[in-house]
Amino acid sequence: MAPTPTGRYARRWLVVSWLLTLSYVVHVAAAAFWTGAILFYAYLVVPAGGRSWLDRAAMNVLLDRLLRVTRWTGIALPVTGFYQWWVLYPVDPGALLGTTRGWLVLAMLSLWGALNGLLEVGIYRMRTVGGSVDPVAYLAEGFLVDGGVDGVATERLAAVGRPYVLVSLALTVGLLVDAALLAGGVPL
C-alpha cells in the first residue's frame, strides 16, 4: 500500500481518492445495469417477441427502455472510465500500451464502443421496419413508445433485432470477462 501524502498534497490526495472511489461506484453500477439490461433483453424479450408472447406495445416499451439505458450509461461509463484512465495511467503511454492491464483497458474501451454502436444500429433497424425514419429524428426521439412501429408484428421486430442482440450478447460476455480480469488482477 502506498504511503499517504502529507503536507500540502494531503488534501489533493484525499479529493482524488474520494473522486476515484465515486467514479468506481458509478462505473460499476452503470456497467452492471447496462449489461444486465442486455442480458435480460437477449434472454427474455427477443425470444418472447419471436413467439408472439409480447404485444407490440410491450415490445415498444422494452426497446425504448433498452435504448435509454444504453444512452445514459453511454454517458456515465466514458466519463468515469476516462477519469480513472487519467488518474491511474497519467501521461505515461507505456503504462497503458506497455502492460497487459493497459491492453485490457483498451480492449474494454473498444468492446464498449462496438457494443454501444451495435445496439444503436440494431434498435434503429427495428424502428425502420415499419417505414423509413430520419436518422437525426431517431437520435432525438429514440424508439417511440407510442407508435414506435405500428402495424409490424413482434415476430418481425424480434427477427430484425435478433442478430444484433446475439452479437451484443457475445460482446457483453467479453466485457464481463475483461472486467473480471481487471478487477481480480491480471494473472497473465
Topology:
Elements: H1 9-50, H2 56-88, H3 93-97, H4 100-127, H5 135-141, H6 154-184
Helix pairs in contact: 1-2, 1-6, 2-4, 4-6
SSE string, helices as H and strands as E: HHHHHH
Number of strands: 0
The secondary-structure class comes to mainly alpha
Overall outline: elongated
Compute the separation of the termini in Å: 22 Å
* Helix amount: over 70%
Q: Radius of gyration in whole Å, from Cα?
A: 20 Å
Query: Low-confidence stretches at least 5 residues in length (pLDDT < 50)?
Result: none
Strand content: under 5%
Counting H and I runs of at least 4 residues, what is the number of helices? 6
How would you classify the quaternary structure? single chain
Mean pLDDT: 83
Number of domains: 1
- Tell me about the largest β-sheet: none
Task: Walk me through the structure.
With 188 residues, this protein is mainly alpha-helical. It has one domain. The protein contains 6 helices and no strands. Helix 1 (9-50) runs antiparallel to helix 6. The longest helix has 42 residues, at 9-50. The protein starts with 8 loop residues before the first helix and ends with a helix.
Question: What would you say about this model in short?
Answer:
The protein is mainly alpha-helical. 78% of the residues lie in helices and 0% in strands. It is elongated and about 70 Å long.
Features:
elongated, mainly alpha, 78% helix, 188 residues
